[in-house]
Design brief:
The protein is of the alpha+beta class and 144 residues long. It contains 6 helices and 5 strands. α4 crosses α6 (115-133) and α5 packs across α6. It comes from Streptomyces glaucus. This is DUF1877 family protein.
Amino acid sequence: MSIIVEFFAASDDASAALALQAGPRRAFESLSFGNFDPGEAVVEWECLLAGGSFEELVEAGEPRLVAGQDDDGCVVFAISPRLSAALAEAERSELKDAAVAWSLQRAEDGEDIGTEIAEVILGDLAALVSSTRGQGQDVYCWVA
């Protein structure tokens, strides 16, 4: 389980990788959350908003690691273009439905993420994705 989860916008993978050691807050527009597995979450969100199966997405290499080692250290990974598009195009009601479904999925696995918090996470992330698309940036996640 992550302690710090920060989604942020960057112009490319090389720029995003610079956030690995100190995090993105100083150099990038970011959203800070905590205490959930963002790697698993982005795959679940993509399934909920764009379809597909969890296993297929993981086998396809999602989420794509940009920097770091996935061995309990800091990592930076990219949000998939498909998830970005789904978040940017989703209506508020679709985001709410996805948040409720995600909260229930997490509860089934013994993880308590309230529906209200899930709605904030997905809503804020959708707003970040929408604002960055016109600037030619992508959204990444830094995990510590």
